[in-house]
Input
Amino acid sequence: MQFDSWSAFIAMGGYGVYVWSAFFVTFLCFGILALEAVWRRNKIREEAQRQQARSERIQKAKRESST
Amino acid sequence: MVATRTVFLQLVKRDVRVALRQRSELLNPLIFLLIVVSLFPLGVGPGPDILARIAPGVIWVSALLSAMLGLDRLFRDDFRDGALEQMMLLPVSMEISVLAKIAVHWLLTALPVLLIAPLLALLLNLPTHAWGVLWLTLLFGTPVLSAAGAIGVALTVSLNKGGALLSLLLLPLLIPLLIFATAAVEAAVSGLSAAGPLALIGAFMVLSLTLAPFAVKAGLRVSVN
Amino acid sequence: MWRWLHPYAKSEATFALNQKLLPWFLIPGLVLTIVGVIWGLAYAPPDYQQGESYRIIFVHVPSAIWSMGFYVSMAIAGLIALVWQIRTAELALLAIAPVGAVLTFISLFTGAVWGQPMWGTWWVWDARLTSQLILLFLYLGVMALYVAFEDERAGGKAASILALVGVINIPIIHYSVYWWNTLHQQSTITKVITRFESPSIAPEMLWPLLVNIFAMMALAGALVIMRLNNELLRREVHRPWAQAILNQEKKENQNAV
Output
């Protein structure tokens, strides 16, 4: 461990703002990309469900109208 | 069997003739170049030192922009009236006809620039001993502009609003050329040898003229279908 | 020779491969990131010249390396898409481009916040920085060209061509630092690899840096895989295999809740 205390760790020898903003932005970017991918997958899943339900409804209506 | 050279020359002749019919459009890039170059002294002040300092960059940036202004004509009209599809059906390989197109663009936009380059250098107070190098960078560099520009146009010709996209695509490809061209002229201004950057620009020219036709061909295939 | 490539023209096969690969990227990526970041921030010794500010290197160098690496992989995907007319390669290109652009942005941003305390300026028009900016433009151009086409096939092909043309810039970017040596320090790691020189960086700093480089590659790779899988599912949402996967995922989610 290179630092004596938490406050020294946060201060980074006076360069705290620069070091922490660099790391923060990096992880923010990765986080946004990851969340976007997960959110997109959920959207696709919803869309697929909607389409499946719709095709089932159409099938059902066809069956009913033919009888 | 049709001789490749005949087809090439025929294509060049045809395109030059078509372009000469629209004289105003032909003059546009040249006027643009003159206006930009004469605006700079008004903008940054007429001090001869400053002008000589920024002259290589100004001349090159405006040459680049005026070449891009003329790029639209490269394939767009032919795409609209179907001449492009005819070109694809020619009995020579398409790279030849693409090369003809690039040659015509160079003849119509770069040759005038080469002719008035001394005037631009004079206006911007560039030291006379650097004129030769400036002229050489333009001679070697402008074919790169035409060839790389042809790639960009080939990719965007079928899009309705290709203008801004075209500059986004071309800018990264042309920045190295701009850097080396201005570096060469600046070296010449300060009395150093400009052979290194000039050789690199020459390499860019050879590279782009040999490889660009293949990329243009692939791009046109995407755009036409 | 290239036979092994052909099955992956089918979305289903690519998806299955991706599902298998994903944990191999994601888990080492997360573990190495935690290890590397803590090591780099807390345990690596301070630089004798730059003090603690040099710790930005642990995100700056990995993102700079992989911004170029991912561009090359994107161009390879473009080459495959053009030569073998494989559509999944076009989708891979589309999945790589935003991740690569974000990596380029990270390298530019962290470079700026590193440059401010060290050089006293956020930005200099130095060769390295300029070429990184060019790289960002290249990524943006590829993405913009792709979405500009209404027909996605045409857009994918056009973007592939542009990616291949832009790859000519990669060697220029790499050697620019040797050509003009202005403010930016020479890259420490490539010197080791390309010239067999002893590294000009202390091993106590080099090891966490290497850990971070691999961590970022794995994490960014995992993101690419996730994006590619999403894109595959979105295209094939009507197909039975995609529906089966989506239904199963839904069940798993419900069980988890």
